[in-house]
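Sample intake sheet
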Amino acid sequence: MTISKDFQIARVELFKVPPRWLFVKITLHNGLYGWGEPVVEGRADTVKAAVEELASYLVGQDARRIEDIWQVLYRGGFYRGGPVLMSAISGIDQALWDIRGKSLEVPVYELLGGAVRDRMKIYSWIGGDRPENVAEAARARVAAGFKAVKMNASSDMEWIDTPRKVDEIIERAALVREAVGNEIGIGLDFHGRIHRGMAKAIMKELEPVKPMFIEEPILSENNESLKVLQQMTSAPIATGERMFSRWDFKHLFEDRSVDIVQPDLSHAGGISEVRRIAAMAEAYDVAIAPHCPLGPISFAAALHLDFVSINAFIQETSMGIHYNGEIDLIDYVRNPEALKVEDGYIGLPEKPGLGLDIDEEKVIEMAKIGHTWKNPVWRNADGSFAEW
């Protein structure tokens, strides 16, 4: 195939930046460049190595052939899928779409068929890993204009735990509902911390709270149990942050066992693959709410997907999340207005590509600091491992 010299990929650069992110910059011979965010939380160095391996193929390729590059990166290594490879591909894919939009001077969503909505509803995190002060935090988010919040439903749990632990979960969720009223959505994230035996009891007792969704009531490797759990609640069930391609999701759709899927644009193959997952979900009457506890590039990519997906109903953001500490999404962009939440929504991006003006000087400066973020390891009272 003939490759235009101007659009050949010249170099691939990686920047590991606090609080726990990895950015990739892909630059063409003609000087155009794009940014992506390939990372697995707690495994940034592993994904960095994967991107560096894939870069040996990328250099010299025509950056306009996004789908061909995706297929080769996915299929060309014989072993496929999984969090590391798919996260590496995700960041590369985001950067290529960013380049393509910039080259044509249009936002990425215009290249995907155009917007189906004018603004996207956003939800905000409250409560931390071991949730506390959730009612107060929820009121503060509502006062800031958010129409929905999400919280961890529990802290660490035994495989079969006490009625008191169940009561604490119900009481905490009820406090948030009482604090914000019925106009506000409340997402309850079980984070895979609950095993099936406990999930059955807890989900049933959450009925009066009317959750916006119950997220990851069990680990994704046990998704076959979701069909049983569907019988325990009228609340929508959501899952998908630890699923990495359309092949991982197809069984959920076939089983009619989920109401909302939550692929992550930095884990599930980037814009190209999550667009396909969203279309599959639509065919099964399933909503999509992309997972995004990460940085500004991942968030921007998710928004472009949301704006072209009729079944996207809400978008997660990590702005102000407890993991971020002293540095947040907007600290890496020169146009923070592109990520500004107003009245609980973000409007259509206006700039070409992903719409972000990444502050490369800041990225280089913070990459000298880097990070060694790892998720905590929790243990039960008897010393056995507990899911985080």
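Comment: The chain has two domains: 9-106, 110-352. The chain has a mean pLDDT of 96.
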